[in-house]
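Notebook entry, structure prediction.
Reason for the run: the old model in the group folder had no record of what sequence produced it. Starting over properly, with the input documented here first.
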Amino acid sequence: IITFICNDETVTAQHNSAATLLDFIRQTIKLTGTKEGCREGDCGACSVLLGKLVNDKMVYQSVNSCLLPLNSVIGKHVVTIEGLNDDNLSLIQKSFIEEGATQCGFCTPGFIISFTGHLLSSEHIDKTNAADAIAGNLCRCTGHATIHRAMEKVIANIKANSSKKFFSVSELIDKNIIPSYFNEIPSRIIELKKNITQPSSENGNTHIGGGTDLYVQRGREIAKGSFDFVTDDSDNKIYLEDNKCFLTASTTVSEFSESEIIEKIIPDVKEYTKLFGSLPIRNRATLGGNIINASPIADMTNILLALDSTLIFQNGTQTREIKLEHFYKGYKLLDKLPEEILKTIYFNIPGGNYKIKYEKVSKRTYLDIASVNSTILISIIDDKIEYVRIAAGGISPIPMVLKNCSDFLTGKTIGPAVILEAANIANKEISPISDARGSADYKRLLLRQLILAHFLKLFPAKITEEIAV
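New structure, fully documented this time:
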């Protein structure tokens, strides 16, 4: 039984919980303003807002409904394009029309949904963050210039005579951004949750977190099969204990990025995670999924490898720990029993004068998978490298730690000759292949340049750009 609030209506239906929200809202309840485009989370035509109650307050995120299992919306508020206006157009819709930001209109609902999500959820409303919010939406007809003008016009309107960085739901209602029924949603969700239960998670042998990759690769199979869905709406997914940082496997990339705990450990985490998919993807993709998916170029796995992370698996009442760097046995081969579930990831909080840096090269800077990526964790004492750990992806069948390179650098004084020799050592311990993302020789060159880039950016007084030539 699927029970949730869609726009202003409570929806209760018996339905396959593995089916996508997109199919349900278009085919079952006939809300066809949400469009079906790529079914891969790339075009954004299927974007909706998903709201959940956190500490008596609704928190909204834009998500791709084509990759969202119905199980994930039970007890939540789903907002489609039909739910953003009453009898009249919202301020955002008017602005899109006035600025010529729509042509055929197929992609327009996704843009309006994502921009509304920014106004509802961002703690700093401005044109830069608004641009990031719509990064998961495509328009090949109108072009983004008019869309940006429409958003800037709305932002200027709601911030006129105000220095506020964000606005409450009531204020956004007053400014004609959202309809008045949004004020009633928290109390309605509370009542809704009194009468619903989450579906049992005991029948399937594949456990799905965000589904952002599985639904692309195996969407039809999932909709017809027996799968378990990880549902974790807790607000304590990331926590500290005994000088360790713990992350539940269901932690999303957005939750990782926005965590104050993580930001203290990785100061530039927000910039790094922007290189991981679009905002709607980051809102759903989980750390556990990124690890278990076992891609050699996984972004989050790369960072967690550099932090020397440990995985905790559960099998019934038993648990098992394994270092992340020992988890991969070959391409897509894992040290994991079928019945084991990844529950938690943890790492020791780095100490001393340490720095951490993530680098990625892809055909596009954003919204693309890496050709090669790398993370370095390094601490310095008296100009000498006390500790260093370099992870790299795209240069072997598995994401890996450059152990020989890291061992060579330990105890050395940073300088051009040392860094060049470290890059040469790294070149000998990798085994890239030629594929669609580049030739093996190209990937070797990329890794060399990324290692140099780590030191150029972290220690500009010791390394000059000439070293990279």
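Summary: The chain is about 30% helix and 20% strand.
The old model has been moved to the deprecated folder.
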